[in-house]
Amino acid sequence: MNGSQLDNLAKSVAANKTKYYSVNSTAIGNVNNDGATGPNAMAMGGNASATGGQDIAIGSGQSGQNTSL
Q: Is the model's pLDDT at 60 over the cut of 90?
């Protein structure tokens, strides 16, 4: 990859970033986006964990359990 290609990649990443979402946490859990392990689950936040099917966990240390509709 040359300098021009790297510059184009940086511009593309900046232009296509996720909008309206931020997390400020020193927690080490879910830092690798591995907090959602259940099928169709979502985990947002430091140490958030969603392990069941269609579970949702939002916030630091939150655990989504039995949240399916």
A: no
